[in-house]
Amino acid sequence: MEFSRIVIDPSICAGKPHILGTRLTVDLLQGQLATGWGRENILETYPYLTAEEVDQALAYPPTQA
Predict the structure, then answer these.
(1) Helix locations, 1-63, DSSP H
(2) Which are the contacts of 55, defined by CB distance < 8 A and separation ≥ 6?
(3) 13-32 CB burial, b ≥16 within 10 A, e <16
(4) Which residues contact 49 (CB under 8 A, 6 or more apart)?
(5) CA-CA distances (angstroms) from residue 2 to 37, 39, 57?
(6) What integer pLDDT is reported at residue 1 of this predicted model?
(7) Cβ atoms of 57 and 26 closer than 8 Å
(8) Angle subtended at Cα 14 by Cα 2 and Cα 62, rounded to the nearest 5 degrees
(9) What's residue 30's pLDDT?
């Protein structure tokens, strides 16, 4: 999968991967999924995200802490 909507910028979100144009980190969205949220819950909560952006965030490899 291509992650065209996921970016890493050291000056945004402490360099964590996030959705382009937002401050929503990939690990935040993956964490919501891990606690029982579904893709539809995420789209309802963040209506400015596209389905493609959510799919990319959920498929993105977990970051090393």
Answers:
(1) 26-34, 39-45, 51-59
(2) 39
(3) beeebbbeeeebbbbbbbeb
(4) 19, 22, 24, 42, 43
(5) 23, 19, 11
(6) 83
(7) yes
(8) 40
(9) 95
Q: What's the pLDDT at 62?
A: 83
Residues of the chain with pLDDT under 50: 65
pLDDT at 43 (0 to 100): 96
- Amino acid identity of residue 28, one-letter, is L
Count of CB atoms within 10 A of residue 53's CB? 22
SS3 25: strand
Q: Token pair of 17, please?
A: 């991967």
